[in-house]
Amino acid sequence: MLLARRFRMPITIAWSTPGAALLAGSGAISGGWSAAVGAFAVTGVLIMITGLWPRLSELIGRIPTSVAQAMLAGVLLPLCLEPITAVVRQPLAVGPVLLCWLIMLKLAPRWAVPASFATAAVVIMISLLDHGTMPSVSRLFPHPELTLPHFGTPAMIGIAVPLYIVTMASQNLPGVAVMRSYDYQVPWRPSMLITGASTIVAAPFGGHAINLAAISAALAAAPEADPNPNRRWVAAYSAGVSYLVLGLCSAAFATLVTLAPAGVVAAVAGIALIPTLASSIASALERADERLPAAITFLVAASGVTVLGISSAFWALVAGLLLRLLLRTRTPGRRRTS
Description:
This protein has 338 residues and is mostly helical. It has helices at residues 2-7, 17-24, 32-51, 54-60, 65-89, 91-107, 112-131, 153-181, 188-202, 215-221, 233-248, 250-259, 264-284, 291-303, 312-328, and strands spanning 13-15, 210-212.
């Protein structure tokens, strides 16, 4: 909320999803949970140090819009396929959500996604009542627990460094690239200093890494958020308000999500991202001379491959930029055209 309001940009903050995947596969470490918390805090320090490196921001600024948008489209594709696959598996549960979305898309497009989410909530409640699986009241309230960090070498090497690399490569760098593709120049130093400091503060409560969002940022930065680019920061600010509300209701929300019929929550998320996917594909393929690098970027991102613990979003950027450089390099006896 601070970044969005201060810079009047739709700067959106999120948790490091690739970082969570990395942690899920890391297994137990020496020192236990307190050592992991210490590693989270060190990750925040490393992010803050990165904020003091302006050349990295300059490097990100050179990423072409077509490649950045193709990367975003590739990441979004599996999510946008969820409503289709889910309605086949669970037609009675997902069908009403899709029907509501289609009706509202015709009558009030801006309210189509909120209405779909409300319909999904009704479907979840009906399912819980039918199966008699209503959660106990104690499960509906959050219980924050403070953990004093322990700083051990194994956790620093096994968690802090990989978590930092994954967060920077798969979240912060693509996040800045996506924002730039919508003509927003993210203030690098303030963003890294604030997210790094927030990571340090959140670490004792189990927060593993706070960073710039990519997919969520695209939702707030896209024309669907507001036709006026100067007003889209309100969408990111509203996301911050929603985070605070969900924080107070986190236990109840997480409980309902885990008890929801398969595919319902994923279908709502996929529906919300379809307009962003469409605009990303259109932007990525707008220039004929950029289409092949954009296509490769899209395919790598959509593949979901993970190499060295780094997600496909980063490798998609690498592949697209390398192919673009290769195609634009002069060859003997042949003039470059562009």
